[in-house]
Structure formats: C-alpha cells, structure tokens
Amino acid sequence: MPAAKVQIGLAPQDPLPKDTRLPRSQNWEKAKNHVARTHLRQDVLHKTSTRLCCETQAVGIETLSVQRMMANHRLARSIADQGFGRFFAMLQYKADRYGTQLIEADRWFPSSKLCSTPGCGYVKKDLTLKDRAWTCGLWNHA
After folding, report:
1. Nearest to residue 100, comparing CAs of 90, 85, 109, 110?
2. C-alpha span between 11 and 124 (Å, rounded)
3. Which end of the chain has the lower number of beta carbons within 10 A, N or C?
C-alpha cells in the first residue's frame, strides 16, 4: 500500500483521503482474470450438460483415464482446464433430474473400431491414428 500511495502522489505515512481509489496491482488483475475464467468454465459446463440432458433421450460418454492423459506434458494444462470430472458429475445428476439415460462406455470399448451400421458388429483390428475414415470389411450392408 505504501507504493500505491507514492504512485498517486502521497507520502507513505500520510493517511489516505476519503474516496481515494488506489491503482490495482498486477497480481490483483491476474487473480480477477483467474476468477473470471473459472466462472466462465463453470457456466459453459452447466449450460452444455443441461442442454444435452434436456434435448436428448440418452447421452453416451466414454470414461477416460484423465490421470494417464495428464502424463503428456504438452497437453496436461489443456486437459486440466477442461474439467472432465466436473462435467461427468454434472451429467450424472442432470440426467437423473431430466430423465435422460446416461450410458457409460468403458475406456477399453472399441468404439472407433466398430462398424457404424446397426447390428453389423464388425471390428477393424488394424486401425491406426492416421485412419480417419474406413470401410467395413463385411461389405454386405444394404
């Protein structure tokens, strides 16, 4: 506070005149921005989970190993900022509230490797990260 008094032209030992606003520190600005980001993230999570549960009959979510994803130091901050655990908890209680069925897919379920045709059941064994689209190996779809 003494540095702020000097910055506005007062001596450090002088009393602060009534209705005088001191300049805000950079740490105060950082804290304000941090709180704003946290509230914005909460708002987005609440709105997204509410919209999903209100507009659909069922929501499918994959249970991920966030701890293992955090091991990648290049992605750790981005993953931590997403709030996966908080979003999953919101989905759970809002699905109960709105009567939406919440389906949890196990982390080892081969969702990317399954054919998208209902009832087909074909699983592509040699799927790599480069494969963005693939054709079913059974070829008997109508």
Report:
1. 90
2. 76
3. C
